Structures are given as structure tokens and as C-alpha cells.
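Table S4 entry, TonB-dependent receptor.
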Amino acid sequence: MKKIFIMWLLLGYVGSSYGQTITIKDQQTNEAIELVTLSNAKTNHYATTNSKGQADISAFKDLEKIEIRSLGYKTVIKSYLKLASEGFKILLETSNFSLDEVVISGSRWRQSSDDVPSKIISISAKEVALQNPQTAADLLSASGKVFVQKSQQGGGSPMIRGFATNRLLYSVDGVRMNTAIFRSGNLQNVINLDPFAIENTEVLFGPGSVIYGSDAIGGVMSFQTLTPQLSLTEKPLITGKALARYSSANKEKTGHFNVNLGFKKWAFVTSISSWDYDNLRQGSHGPDDYIKDYYVQRQDSTDVVITQEDKLLQIPSAFSQINTMQKIRFQPNERWDFQYGFHFSETSPYGRYDRNQRVRNGLPRYAEWDYGPQIWMMNNLNINYTANNSVFDQMSLRLAHQWFEESRIDRAFNKTERNTQSEEVGAYSVNLDFIKATAEKNTFFYGLEYVLNDINSKGELTDISTGISEVGPARYPQSKWQSLAVYVTDEFKVVDNFTLSAGARYNHVLLDAEFDTAFYPFPFTEASLSNGALTGSLGGVYRPADSWVISTNLGSAFRAPNVDDVGKVFDSEPGSVVVPNPDLKPEYAYNADLGIAKVFGDVLKVDITGYYTSLKDALVRRDYKLNGQDSIMYQGELSQVQAIQNAAVAHVYGLQAGVEVKLPKGFGFSTDVNFQKGEEELDNGDTSPSRHASPFFGVSRLNYKANKLSMELNVNYQGKKDFDDLPDEEKGKTEIYALDENGNPYSPAWYTLNFKALYKMTDTFDVSGGIENLTDQRYRPYSSGISGAGRNFILALTAHF
């Protein structure tokens, strides 16, 4: 009789609405939970809840196992029939700890972390709302697991497991962001992303080349932006938020607005953000070596050194930025889902603070050293199709076009010639990904990829006294960089608590470059590279019990030479100039890691991962000869000639560890620490510490949550890096480091004490903010050219609708 009643209930639901809607809320607060994932591993079905906690689960009809997951809540597994008997309403219970969540960065498909041997962390929109990061680089840093270097306020170059810059891969909505001019020096491209428009951020640690190809050596940073939400009823779904924020350390003035308009088959998301930052003020307690109490100003055709009234201001570091995003979604039926996204980001020109600290003969070396506006635009069409045929269960086609513009502007002190170098990159990509489950144990992920980068580089020399301009030396040759690849990964569930994964990828990279020899006497006018690369991975995840998990992974990764490696001309440091080298081949990384996570009585969680990576044929900067000469004149200075070469072997090993403790009355404590050590081979056979192996760093947090209030007191810290521990190439950069008792540069240890809070005043309004660097420390993260903010008061008001 009970079964008959349930079947009658199901028929009633199906017949009375467009689809079957489930509503999911928080058990304690009865508030709707957004972005809850419902999935079935066997059929690869999934759905996510909208801002009202609702999702259409018609596709799950008759399934015996529907897994319901959300970060911070206990996982629920129920049958469709059971959900129907409960009226398709679920109350999720908060969880102190989670060993199981839904991730996408491991395969570009949604899958349980139970089945992914790589270490992956997620940074949710809720965490972003509490932390109030100013940029996407600060968002990554807030995790406590990614070290971020800054050369200026308008920047942020992540370091992961001893690798950085073009040995890390950025993915936006599944599209590769890396271009062929991503350099080995510090990169600022991550600031193009809008933290307010990011739905979820994941960081995959270790090699990711099987899925993502070249550059994914140290890790992958995957950003999922806001997804248009469809209405599940006849009434349009209209949701959104507006935010205003102010920070005192740089007089930040930020505004953001987004709105979602959803119908049954069509949905639209519009987002716009604007930031304005003044010069950044550093702390009052710390090394005096970080103080540069002057700046250069042009007065009456002369460069004049101006003494600052406030010596703690870092001038020039001010900049502004605007981001817009428009997404359109069309879902004609359960099988097809079309999503188009348009992204645009542009910064103002801004000073590169570290270069503006350089001196020559007791005077500033530069009167100007600025980045021009940094522009990023992306058009992305994502087509998903569900078929459940003999070849695939789901198919995803991503077509993307990106446009990058960046420039560098410099002028020597009391010289009238301004040098401007500009780059434009058109990046085109096609990704065709499939997923197929066979029987009940195997799931195959496979696909194809094609990438084309078209690089246009030009130089201009302008006499600022006359305004006359002429063609100048370009930074790069005119180039085309192409990548073609095919990959396959098999996820094999040996038993319910043990999953094996194995994958392979073949990549072929082509590069064609044409050099202009009008300014530099290169012994060549063109270069062509054609390199193949085969990478693989093998890993496993074992869960002896629900309370703990063991994972291990062996993998290889590669980075093919790009245009920056082959063809760049620039001054890497005073007295050195890097010139092109057309004779390069890929570098390969081989990695092993082991992770263990254990929950003790829902009170304590411990998570430890150890890793070791070896980099062969590493592309590094080394002394070189151009036309038989080891030195040439560059910008009026005799400079040592260097070039990127396959000239080294590098090794990195380290440990990532985390502890979380549930304390009484809504309190909690957690600590994340990171230790890494790297070394690379030098020309003479000696070794030097790796440049991107950061010192010991971490964050410890004391949290409190009660109903509408969330608070956090945290300490961020970094260990000391002595002169002897600095990489050889860093020891000459005295302008960015503190000096020890012997006058040698080093990176001191530092800490900041920070307080953050978020209070939900009503269903509509939130107020958040806090005080960063409470003790007003003057500190500078390792390898950075600008100090962090001094004591900083933050206040933000958010309206939800």
C-alpha cells in the first residue's frame, strides 16, 4: 500500500509541473542553500541548486542513489523514491569536517574527491565574502595554501609547490588562460579575474598535464564564474547582489553589481565591478630597508626627486580596474545545455614599484617604469550534450577566443627617450571532452584539444621633449604558437572504498617566429619548433573507513617552449640582458605525492600531504653568447648576454599539513602550514635554491559562528630566508630585500594579525569587514618588490535580492 501511495505521489508531481523540483535548506537556520550538488556517479547525472535552494531533478527519476553534497554540510545519499516520500524537501546538517566534496579541476567534469588522487582544495564564495580579498591573487592567498608574490600593488604571482608563473596553469570556466607569452618572471594575469563574479575556486596541487597540457607542472588554478540559473516555475527567477567596500590602507573604493534573470529555458547573468586604489601604505614596524621615501616627478623639462611627506606610502602603486561579464544560457531540453560567456577586464596604467626602487650613481635609475593598461577579453561558448550512448554519456564542446593586451613603458632618469613595448595576443581554443561510464566500475574521461596563439609585438621610442615617435625594438618576434592534443583517463573502482586512476596525453606543439634584426644583430631571422610530449599519471584513493582517506599519485608533466622562452629581449636585472634562443625543447617534471586525511570523532581533522618533484631539461636563464660576444650594449649599459636554455635539473620536495579542531559553543580552530625546499643545477655543476620555492608559510585561524554572525581571528606568517638560502639570481636584487648585518639581502620572517567578521542584518543586507595587520607590521613576502598593507580597516555592505 505504501509503494502504491508513493507512486501516486510521484505521478502527481510529474504531471503538475515542468520538472521535479527539490528544495534544500540549512537544518538550523532553515535558509536556502545555494550550489548544493546532486549527482549519480553511475549515470554521470548532476544538478545544482539555485539561490533559492532549488534544483530540477527530473533526470534522476527512478535512481536508487542520489548523492547530495555541499561544502560545510554532511553528505546525504537517498533514492529518488525516498526523496519523493519526503516531499522533495531536504534539510542538510552542518558538518565540522569534510573528506568528500564535488570537484571539477581533476577532469573538467564534476566528480567526487573520493575518486581523485590529486590534492584539491576549494575556496567557496562564502569564504570570499568573509575574507574580502581585493583581487583574485589575494583570494588565492587567503586559502593559506598558495604563496603570492607581488612586484606592485596591481599584481600577484602565485607560487605552488616550488613552481610559479608559466609552470602553473590558469583555467577560467574550463578554458586555458595561459598564453605563449606567459613568462618565467612574475605574472600578473590573475588580477584580470573578478572575485565577485567567481562562483567557486579550486586549486589542484601537482601535475595536471594529462588534462590541461603544457604548463601544468606545479598545479592548476580553476575558476568557475557565475552560472546563469534557470527558473523552475512559470515565474521568472530574479536574483542578484550589490556591494560597496572601502579599505583604509590604500583608500580602496570598490563597487559591484550582478543580476540573474532566469526563465524556464533561458537565463542571463550580468556582472560589473569597479575598483579604485590609491598608493599603498605599508606598516610602521619593520625593516627600514623597505622604505623608499621619494618619487620622481617631471618639472620644467627636468626629472626631480620629490621627498614624500608620508614615508610609508609606496609611490607609485595606485591603480584602478573595471570588470564586466555577460552570460547567456539556453537549455531547450534535458539533453542540451548551451552557455555563452563574455568577459572583459581592463586596468589603468600602474607603476611597477620594484623597478622604481632601482638606483644608479646615487640617483633613481628610472624616471618612469609603468605597465600600460592590462586588458583581457574572452568569448566562450560551452555546449553540453547528454546522450548515454555506446560512445559517451556526456559531451562538452568549448569554443573560446581570448584577447590580451599589455605594455611596458620605461624612461631613464633625466633622459627624454621613452621606450614603450606593447604586446597583443589573440588566443583561440577548442576543447572536446567526453565522459563514459561502463558497467559499474569504469569511468573514462577522454578528449581533444587545439590551441592557437597569434602574437603581435611592437616597440616605440618617443622623445618626450619633442613628442616625435619612431619605431623601437619589440619585446617578442611576430609569432604563432599551436598545440594539438589527445588524452584519456580511466577511473576504475576496484572496490567501493578503493579507486584507481590512470591517464595519458600526447601533445604536439608548433612554434613559428619571425625576428626583426633592425635593432639587434641576431644571427637568425626566423625560428621553427616542433615538439611532441607524452605525459601520464597513475594514482589511487583508499578509504579504510568514512573517517579517513589515503591517496597517492604518480604523474609527469611538461612545458613546451613558448614565445617568451624562444624570442624575448629584456633586462632581467641590472647589467644583464636576455636574448632569443631558437634551439629549445620541452622540460619535463616527474612527481610523486602521498596524502593522508583523518577525522577523529567529528572533533579533530588532520590532513598531511608530502610530495617530491624532479624537473628535467629545465628551461632556465643562463649566460650566453650572441655573435660570439658575451656582452652587448643595452639601453646605454654594457650588459651580460643571457638566454633561456635547457640547462638544468631541479628538485622540489615539501609538506602541506592542516589541522582543524571543533571547539564548544560555535568556536573552531584551524592551521595550515606549508614547507618546501627546492634546488636547481648551475652552469658550474653547483646547486642554487630554486627561485620559486617559497619559505615556510601558513595561516592559523580561530573561528566563531552563531546564526547570523561569522567571525575570524587569524595569523598569517612566513619564515625567514637567509642570504645563503636565496637563489643566486635573487642575491643581486638589493632593492627589494632587507639587508642583514653583513649588508647582504635576505627575506625576514613576518606575521600579521587579522580580524574578519560578517553579520547578516536581514535577509537582504550583510555587513562585513575587519582589521588587517592589527599590529601594523612592515613586511614584504619573499621575492616581492612591494610591502604588504599596514594596518588596514575594511568595511563592506552587501545587498542581496
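Residues 1-18 have pLDDT under 50 and may be disordered.
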